[in-house]
Write a structure and sequence with these properties.
Strand order of the largest sheet: 3-2-1-4-5-6-7-8
Shape: globular
Largest sheet: 8 strands, mixed
Radius of gyration: 25 Å
Bound molecules: 6-phosphogluconic acid
Distance between the termini: 86 Å
Structural class: alpha/beta
Strand content: 5-15%
Length: 467
Amino acid sequence: MKSEIGLIGLGVMGTSLARNIARNAYSISLYNRYVKGSEEGIAHKKIDQYKELSSAKGFEDLSAFVNSVQQPRKILLMLTAGAAVDQLISELEPLLDSGDLIIDAGNSHYSDTERRIELLAKKKIFLLGLGVSGGEEGALKGPSLMLGGSTQAYGLVKDLLNKIAAKKSDEQPTAAYVGNGGSGHFVKIVHNGIEYAEMQLIAEFFQIMHQAMGMTYDQIAVVFEQWNQSDQKSYLLEITLSILRTKDEQGYVIDRILDKGAHNGTGSWSLIAATELGQAASMMSSALFSRYTSSQKRCRTKLSALYESKNQRIELTLDDLMATYRFARLINHHQGFSLIHVASKEHRWDINLAIVCGIWMEGCIIKSDLLYQLYPILKSHQLPLSDASIVKQIHMDRPHVEKLLSSLIPSDVPSLCISNAFEFLKQMVQEQSPAHLIQAQRDYFGAHGFQFKGDLTGDLYHYNWKN
Ligand code: 6PG
């Protein structure tokens, strides 16, 4: 009997997805490359290790693996994004037949996905770009699945994806078709941009409470726990409070971790996409840049000895902290959904933002109750900041944000992401920006031209400034 699906790449995520698929009663073939000394007999080792994989078939020979899968073949790749995916596709392509389907479930760049879709279409082989979020545990127990590509190909795997995905409170799966081309991978990139800012926000509040307010890790964990029992409940808060409570014989584990934020690239891709589309994704940028600054440890250490430190205590209430956190998260999600909205128009992906919001409600790293709150707003085709209930919320939270940010100014505790949330709001709600002056400057030194107010032609004019 041939398998219903094949899976290539048995790293942490690939193994978890394979187990999830097998648990859902699909027959599966597994392939992992053979690398002498480091990757030998991997598929069989996994089959021996996990009981749900006991009836899976394991391969190190790609041709035998392909032949073991029912036609039209469905082959899921879980590989490191980039050259490894191109290499594997080039090996796989001659072995596949017209109508077969490759599902790239790695964190591929959406433009690579679009290129590969076109390439394989010449042989009538389908490729779907599948954004997968949820880490190792999500992949095993139910991830978020963001699918992009042809609807015909989606039909071949829809049931399987729905079965392995996490389930929302209404029992619907967190898996959906988001649009054609590379849209699934694009949505995953933006998910990661939002993830970066969500993580940075929690880190900034942690530092404010610890360094500026003198709170212990246990006290901070209690605050995060309270937030996690409120409408701010999220997976990232949940893991953070667990991290803050993790101690061993040497003390708090977090105290032994080097403070250099690493990254695998998707956060910077979200920002590159934002700049290409002219979108002010300032929360993602401040989160990413904060990781970059943190990684300059040697330089920071040297400079910290040259500058006088200002470690005075600040007084903030729990309401100030929570209202500011809620405020900043709203701005972050607004920016993320706006980015997808603009990209969808530009690339003609026709992405429904409410569907994306639904996929992110459970299973993924940014899952949170806020997504349940934003769903009806996005469903009514509005972006979060335009909605009356959000406007009211922002008005209520704003005095707390102002108090928190102004009390941090004389201290050494940075708040790049929180400050950016506030600055973004101020810029977005001003009817008159100072950009008329920018336009005049550009025209003065470079004759770049500007539009006159009220002129609907869109024509550019040059003014003879120097006369
Ligand atoms: C997910 C995550 C995952 C990502 C890691 C690491 O949704 O499961 O986004 O895909 O690879 O979070 O990302 P960085 O190494 O860039 O922090």
